[in-house]
Amino acid sequence: MLKTRFFKTYLKESKQIGSFTPSSRFLVKKMCDKINFKTAKYIIELGSGTGVLTKEILKQAQQNTKIFVFELNEDFYKLLQKEFNDPRLILINDCAEHLRKVLQEHQVKEVDAVLSSLPFTTMSELIKNNILDAIYNVLKKDGVYIQYQYSLNAKKLIEKRFGKLKMSFVSINLPPAFIYCGVKD
Question: pTM for the complete prediction?
Answer without folding.
Answer: 0.89
